[in-house]
Amino acid sequence: MLALMGSLLTWNSAHAALALDATRYIYKGNEQFISVTANNESKSEYGAQVWVDNIVEKDTRPTFIATPSFFRIKEEGRQVFRILKVSDHMSKEKESVYWLNLQEIPQAREGSGISMAIRTQVKLIYRPTAIVEGRDGAEANMTIEYQPGSQWLVNSTPYIFAIGAVHDSEGKGIEFTPEERDNLTLFMPGDRVEVTGHTVESVNALSDYGNLEEFELKQMKKK
Fold first, then answer.
1. DSSP per-residue letters across 113-157
2. Nearest 5°: CA angle at 167, between 135 and 94?
3. Among the listed residues 104, 120, 103, the one whose alpha carbon sits nearest the alpha carbon of residue 10
4. Domains 12-130 and 135-220 share a fold
5. Distance CA 208, CA 124 (A)
6. Which of 81, 99, 104 is nearest to 16 (CA)?
7. What is the tens place of the pLDDT at every residue in 36-58?
8. How many CB atoms lie within 10 A of CB 20?
9. In this structure, are residues 101 and 119 in contact, taking their beta carbons and an 8 Å threshold?
10. Which CATH superfamily, name and number, covers 12-130?
11. Where are the domains of the chain?
């Protein structure tokens, strides 16, 4: 369980000079842009490049751009930039996910030595306008699918979840393989994970704001 929860967190080296102001960003379809802040936590000036990559889909058409995409941040300073949607080819019925990248560009070192340039990646989730209102607590709407000899936890919603733990009816965490844990940390609409032999009661998942919360599945609630 600890390994699963740990993998939900944004990877960012302890030696990184630049950091973003959130561990994930939500771009709602009815917004013209979202603002992001990059902070320079070092005592040296750094350059930076920011861009957005597609995580899952094979479509390589530009979907989001960052502006400015290159900038400098003075020591212990900050820079606000915008993410803008420049395409409309993504699904209008379910969420899509992307990587927001922040690449450090350190100053050239005098003499010998190596300058470390660290990249930070966080998830950027696009939420279509049609499903903005239904997101709160949507984790509780996941379902259990029963098949002959097996049962599955299914993301039967249009939302993308980052699940840190799945609990049975006794409150115990269900063990998963590394591949299943990876799947749960980016649990896409329609994804499923096998829970044969368990009565799933609740899940722990990250909210839009990066907080780990517990959600009891509605179909499992006592009547």
1. ------EEEEEEEEE-GGGGGG-TTGGGG-EEEEETTEEEEE--S
2. 25
3. 120
4. yes
5. 11
6. 104
7. 999 999 999 999 999 999 876 56
8. 20
9. yes
10. Immunoglobulins (2.60.40.10)
11. 12-130, 135-220
Q: What is the DSSP letter of 161?
A: B
- pTM score: 0.87
Which amino acid belongs to residue 26?
I
Q: How far is CA 199 from CA 167, 187, 195, 196, in A?
A: 8, 19, 8, 8
Domain boundaries 135-220, corresponding CATH code: 2.60.40.10
Of 163, 168, 152, nearest to 188 by C-alpha is 163
Q: How do residues 114-164 score in pLDDT, each as one tens digit?
A: 567 899 999 999 999 999 999 999 999 999 999 999 999 999 999 999 999
Side chain identity at residue 133, one-letter code: E
The number of residues in the chain equals: 223
